[in-house]
TrEMBL record:
It holds the Pfam family ThiS. The lineage of its organism: Bacteria, Bacillati, Actinomycetota, Actinomycetes, Streptosporangiales. It comes from the Bacteria. InterPro entries: Beta-grasp_dom_sf, Mopterin_synth/thiamin_S_b, Thi_S, ThiS/MoaD-like. This is Thiamine biosynthesis protein ThiS.
Amino acid sequence: MKVTINGVPREVAAGTTVAEAVSEMTPAAAGIAVAVNDEVVRRADWAATRLGPGDRVEVLTAVQGG
């Protein structure tokens, strides 16, 4: 099924969770925020939140610096 992750169309397996999508995007274990269709998904819900056809996913990584 097709979804858009960070503005890039991607093909993912049906039933893919937010947690699985994040693990494919970044190896970072902390400092990550995710929104699906403009709604923030709490980290505690990533494993239970399944993506659907046409979903728009934004995976954001916090960056420190000065």
